[in-house]
Specification:
The complex is a heterodimer of chains A (284) and B (392).
Chain A: H1 3-49, E1 68-73, H2 82-90, E2 102-110, E3 117-120, H3 124-130, E4 147-156, H4 164-168, E5 174-176, E6 182-184, H5 194-198, E7 205-207, E8 212-214, H6 220-223, H7 230-234, E9 240-244, H8 251-258, E10 274-277
Parallel strand pairs in A: 1-10
Antiparallel strand pairs in A: 1-9, 2-3, 2-4, 5-6, 7-8
Chain B: E1 10-13, H1 25-48, H2 56-72, H3 74-80, H4 89-92, H5 103-132, H6 135-144, H7 153-186, H8 199-226, H9 232-263, H10 268-276, H11 280-305, H12 309-340, E2 346-349, H13 361-381
Antiparallel strand pairs in B: 1-2
Helix pairs in contact in B: 1-2, 1-3, 1-7, 1-8, 1-12, 1-13, 2-5, 2-13, 5-6, 5-7, 7-8, 8-9, 8-12, 9-11, 9-12, 11-12
The chains are: A alpha+beta (284), B mainly alpha (392).
C-alpha cells in the first residue's frame, strides 16, 4: 500500500518527463518548421523581390509561366531521320556521325533471337548506305532476314527534373531553367566534360569548335518565341510532341493524360521530362 | 573545316555521342599523381607524426616528393579542359552540388599545407644558405627565409611543433583529397563500372601503396646516384608498409569487383565480356598478376625469410616498381575502362591514345616526368638527405 503513491509518483514523474520531452520535441519541431517556413518565405520573398535580371532577356517571354515537356510516340516513328537533319541544321551541330542532339534508335527482333539488334543512324552500315556522314539513312540491312518485331525510338536530352549533369557541373554553367529546360552557358562552361560522364542517356557531347559541352535545348530559341522545336516541326508522322504541361489543352498535356507514358531509366532518379509511348523492355 | 578528334571504334550498340572519348589518358594520370602525393605524405607522416625512427632517412625526401607531385596535379586537368583559361570559374562561382567544384579549394589548401611543412622542415638549411651564399642564389634563400635567421633551440622547438601540427592536419587532408578523387568516379550513377561506394577507399589504398612504392624507388635510386649506403631497416620498413597496404588495396578491389559481379545489375553481361576480353591484359595480367600478385609474393617471402642485404634491396625495389605499374594500370582500367564499356550496356568501345596532341601519349609522359624533373631541382635547392633530419 505504501508503495502505490511512490509508483504513482514515479508514473507522474514519468508522465512529467514524457510531457517535458514531448514539449521539447514539439518546440524543436515548431522551431524547425518555422525555420523551414521562414526559409521558404525568405526564398519566395527573395524570388518575388528578385529583379528581372536572372530572367532571360527574351521579349514577351516569362519563364515562370511555362512547364515544357516532350513526348515521343514510338509507335508512329518511321525512322526517316528528318528530325536528326533538321536538328543539325537548326542548331549548327557538327555534320558528322559523332555529334547528335537527337538521334533515332532502331530495334529489330529477328526470328529465333531473344535479344534485339540495335543500331542508330551513326552505325557504319547506315553511314555507308547514306553515302555520307552528313546525311542519315537507315540501311535496309534486314531485308533478307525474318523480322518478328521492329520499331524506332527517337532519343534526345530528357531535360530531367533532377539532372545528374547539372548536379556535377563544377561552375554552374549548366543549369535548370524555371520553365523546365536544362541549358548550358557556353560562355561559362570550362569544358571539363564531367556532365558528359554523368548523363546516363548519352545526350551530351563535346563541341570541338567551341571547346564546350553541347546538347539538346528543346530549341529554346524557338520555343520561347512560340515556335516548336525543329525536330517536332519536321516530323511527318507526329511522333514527336512538344508543349506546355501548365496548359491543359496543349498537345503534350493531352499526350501525357491520354496515354500510359514511360520514361527512360527511371531507376536513375533523374526524373526525365521526355515521355514515351510504345517502347519495349529492351529500350536502352 | 571541323577540328580533329579521335573516333573510337565500337562493337555492339553504343550511344552515337559515345564514339568520342570524353576523358582521355590525362584524366587517368591525374588520380595517379594525386595518389603519389597521398602515399608519399603517408611515409613522411609515419616519421613526423608517429615518430617511427626507421623512416627518418626518407622522411624529408618523401615530403619533398609529395610537394613536387602535388604542384603538377593541376597540369593534366588544365591540358584536358576545353577552356583552361576559365578554370578558376570553379573556384569563383563553385557549384556546391558538384563533387568537382571543391577540388580547387581542397587542392589549394593542401598545396599551402605542403609548402608550409616543407618550409619548416627545410628552414635550417634555408637559413644557413641565406647566410653563406652570395649572388642570386643567396637572394633566393634570403627571401625564402622571410628574414628569420633564428635557429636557436627555442625556435627549433617552435618549428617542430608546427611541423607536427601540419603533418597531423596533412594526414586527413592528403587522404581526404585522394578519397575524394575516388568519389568523383564512384558517385556517378551513369556507369556501372564506376558506380561503387567502395571507390573512394579503393582509390585511397592504391594511392598509399603507389606513394610508398615511389618513395622506395626514389630512395634506392638517389642512394645509388649519390653513392651512399642504403639504410636497410628503413627500406625494410617501407617494404613492410607496402605489403600491409597492398593487402588492404587488393582486398578492397576484390570486394568491389565481387560486389559488382554478384549484384549483377543491368549491363553486367557486357562488363563480363569486357573483363574477359579486352581487359585481360591491362586488368588481369598487368594490374593483378604482374603488378600486384608478384610483389605480394616477393614481399611475403622476404618477410617470412627475414631477407636482408642485397636480396632485400633488389626484392623491395622490384616490388615497388611493379606496384607503381599496377596502380598506373588501375587508374587506366578505372578511367578508360569505364568509358570503354558503353552506357547502353550493350556495346564496347576501344580507346587508343594518340601519340602527339594536347592529350596524347607524349603529353602524358611529359606530365608524368614533370614531378621528377622538379624533384631533381628541389633536391639541389633543399637537400632532403637523412643526416640533417632530427627526431620531431
Amino acid at each position: 500500500m505504501m508503495k502505490r503513491p511512490e509508483i504513482s509518483q514515479a508514473k507522474d514523474k514519468g508522465r512529467v518527463a514524457r510531457r517535458e520531452f514531448l514539449r521539447t520535441l514539439g518546440a524543436a519541431a515548431t522551431c524547425a518548421g518555422a525555420a523551414v517556413a521562414a526559409k521558404i518565405v525568405v526564398s519566395e520573398a527573395s524570388a518575388a523581390a528578385e529583379p528581372p535580371a536572372p530572367r532571360p532577356a527574351i521579349p514577351n517571354y516569362d519563364w515562370t509561366r511555362h512547364r515544357w515537356a516532350y513526348g515521343v510516340d514510338a509507335t508512329k516513328c518511321i525512322g526517316c531521320l528528318r528530325c536528326v537533319e533538321a536538328c543539325k541544321l537548326e542548331n549548327d551541330v557538327a555534320l558528322d556521325a559523332h555529334h547528335f542532339r537527337t538521334w533515332v534508335e532502331r530495334y529489330v527482333y529477328l526470328e529465333g533471337e531473344d535479344k534485339p539488334r540495335v543500331d542508330s543512324q551513326n552505325d557504319p552500315v547506315n553511314i555507308e548506305a547514306s553515302g555520307s556522314e552528313r546525311e542519315y539513312r537507315f540501311a535496309n540491312r534486314y531485308k533478307d532476314a525474318k523480322v518478328e518485331k521492329a520499331f524506332f525510338v527517337p532519343k534526345l536530352c530528357n531535360h530531367c527534373t533532377h539532372p545528374a549533369c547539372v548536379q556535377v557541373c563544377p561552375t554552374g554553367a549548366t543549369y535548370k531553367t524555371l520553365d523546365g529546360a536544362v541549358l548550358i552557358d557556353h560562355d561559362y562552361c570550362i569544358g571539363c566534360q564531367y556532365c558528359v560522364q554523368a548523363c546516363p542517356y548519352g545526350a551530351r557531347f563535346f563541341n570541338e569548335r567551341k571547346h564546350v559541352t553541347e546538347k539538346c535545348t528543346w530549341c529554346y530559341h524557338r520555343i520561347t518565341k512560340g515556335l516548336l522545336p525543329a525536330c517536332v516541326e519536321v516530323c511527318p508522322v507526329g511522333a514527336r510532341i512538344f508543349g506546355d504541361l501548365d496548359d491543359k489543352q496543349s498537345a503534350i498535356s493531352k499526350f501525357v493524360r491520354n496515354n500510359r507514358v514511360f520514361v527512360l531509366r527511371p531507376e536513375s532518379g533523374n526524373a526525365p521530362n521526355v515521355f514515351y509511348v510504345g517502347i519495349d523492355k529492351d529500350v536502352l | 573545316m571541323d577540328p580533329a578528334f579521335t573516333i573510337l571504334p565500337f562493337s555492339g550498340y553504343v550511344y552515337p555521342n559515345e564514339t568520342v572519348m570524353a576523358w582521355s589518358l590525362l584524366i587517368a594520370i591525374y588520380p595517379y599523381l594525386t595518389g603519389l602525393v597521398a602515399g608519399a605524405f603517408t611515409i613522411s607522416s609515419l616519421y613526423q607524426v608517429f615518430h617511427m625512427q626507421r623512416f627518418r632517412p626518407v622522411a624529408h625526401l618523401a615530403l619533398l616528393t609529395s610537394l613536387c607531385c602535388m604542384v603538377v596535379v593541376p597540369l593534366p586537368l588544365m591540358l584536358h579542359l576545353g577552356h583552361p583559361e576559365r578554370a578558376l570559374n570553379a573556384m569563383i562561382t563553385p557549384h556546391t552540388t558538384s563533387a568537382f567544384a571543391i577540388f580547387g579549394y581542397a587542392a589549394g589548401f593542401y598545396v599551402i599545407l605542403l609548402i608550409l611543412e616543407n618550409w619548416f622542415v627545410f628552414r635550417p638549411h634555408i637559413v644557413r644558405q641565406a647566410q653563406q651564399k652570395k649572388g642570386p642564389l643567396g637572394w633566393f634563400y634570403r627571401i625564402l627565409s622571410l628574414g628569420s635567421y633564428d635557429l636557436s633551440e627555442n625556435a627549433m622547438r617552435y618549428d617542430r611543433k608546427w611541423i607536427f601540427a601540419l603533418a597531423v592536419i596533412g594526414i586527413p587532408a592528403a587522404h581526404g583529397l585522394h578519397g575524394y578523387v575516388g568519389f568523383v568516379f564512384g558517385s556517378l550513377k551513369s556507369r556501372e563500372w564506376w558506380s561503387s561506394d567502395l571507390m573512394p577507399a579503393v582509390f585511397l589504398f592504391s594511392a598509399i601503396i603507389s606513394g610508398t612504392a615511389l618513395v622506395m624507388v626514389i630512395y634506392v635510386v638517389t642512394c645509388k646516384l649519390r653513392r651512399v649506403a642504403i639504410d636497410l631497416p628503413c627500406l625494410k620498413g617501407m617494404a613492410y608498409t607496402l605489403w600491409g597496404f597492398l593487402m588492404f588495396a587488393l582486398l578492397l578491389e576484390g570486394v568491389e569487383f565481387a560486389s559488382l559481379v554478384y549484384r549483377g545489375r543491368e549491363g553486367i553481361d557486357m562488363i563480363m565480356e569486357y573483363v574477359k576480353g579486352p581487359l585481360i591484359v591491362p586488368f588481369a595480367v598487368l594490374q593483378f598478376g604482374i603488378g600486384s600478385a608478384i610483389p605480394l609474393v616477393v614481399l611475403t617471402f622476404m618477410i617470412w625469410r627475414g631477407t636482408t642485404g642485397k636480396a632485400l634491396l633488389v626484392g623491395s625495389a622490384a616490388s615497388a616498381l611493379l606496384v607503381l605499374l599496377a596502380v598506373l594500370m588501375m587508374r587506366w582500367n578505372v578511367v578508360i575502362g569505364g568509358q570503354e564499356i558503353a552506357k547502353t550496356g550493350k556495346g564496347l568501345l576501344s580507346y587508343h591514345p594518340e601519340i602527339s596532341g594536347r592529350e596524347g601519349l607524349l603529353a602524358a609522359a611529359g606530365v608524368l616526368a614533370a614531378p621528377f624533373v622538379l624533384l631533381v631541382i628541389m633536391t639541389r635547392l633543399f637537400p632532403p638527405w637523412g643526416q640533417e633530419a632530427k627526431p620531431a
